[in-house]
Amino acid sequence: MLKPLLAACTLALTAPAAIAACATDAEIAAFVESYIAKTPAQALSPGGSMEDALCSQAKLAAALEPHMGPVIGYKAGLTSKPAQERFGATEPVRGLLFQNMMLEDGAALDAPWGAVPMVEADLVLVVADAGINSAATPEEALAHISAIRPFIELPDLTLAKGQPFTAETITAMGVGTRLGVLGGPVPVEDPAEMARMLEEMTVTMRDAAGGVLVQAPGRAVLGNPVNAALWLRSKGVEFKPGDLISVGSFGPLFPPQAGKGGVSVTYEGLPGDPVVQVAFKD
């Protein structure tokens, strides 16, 4: 999966302006060192274009694979208008998912798990076949999605205080990929009905005491969560069978609260009203 990204990076480096804006090997190495140590990092590609940022992201992904495992899919970030406005973006951003970041439902972990750890209510689509690459609507795309999986993403905003948070620097650092908790698969049996349910469902993230942290309809993500996959496709992503697609957050991100028992996310309106949860240790 990294070959097309690295090829694009190579092309970007042929332009003189991109040479300065795509992260150098030394900058990538320093970022990876901070990432592994879970300490705040310097921004990659500050002031660069989105093409520069994607070049940096590809180089970073190659450097992270020995630590995070192979790339197993893609993620969309800034998929709501408030999130875009907060970071001066006009559309979502794209990142990558790694094999070793995925935890199973009910996982317990120490907080903090990163330099700037956060918690978000998300959702994952599991690609069934390459036919999704020709889809134009959520219903068409869902005909090529084998399952929906509840997902609590545990991103790491990573950057040191005072570093620029822009759509480009967020993209360059991989859109905060760190960890995530996957719930059980919900099979897609009727694409049209699933498209409706995904748009109309209510996604609720609660703390261990039952307090509501986030509550939003499915349409809060680009009108329908599956539109995140269509947006990624419009940016040149070529999906393969088995790829995971993280659609983005249904509401604000929250810092973890150690000793508070963790969080759960419920998807009321999907078959069985599935729930996924994670615990935070003292």
TrEMBL record:
Q: Which UniProt keywords apply?
A: Signal
Q: What is the superkingdom listed in this entry's lineage? A: Bacteria
- Asked if the record carries the keyword Mitochondrion, the reply is no
**Residues in the signal sequence:** 1-20
Q: Which PANTHER family match?
A: 2-KETO-4-PENTENOATE HYDRATASE, ACID HYDRATASE
- Official protein name in the record: Hydratase
Say which species the protein is native to: Leisingera aquaemixtae
Phylogenetic classification of the source organism = Bacteria, Pseudomonadati, Pseudomonadota, Alphaproteobacteria, Rhodobacterales
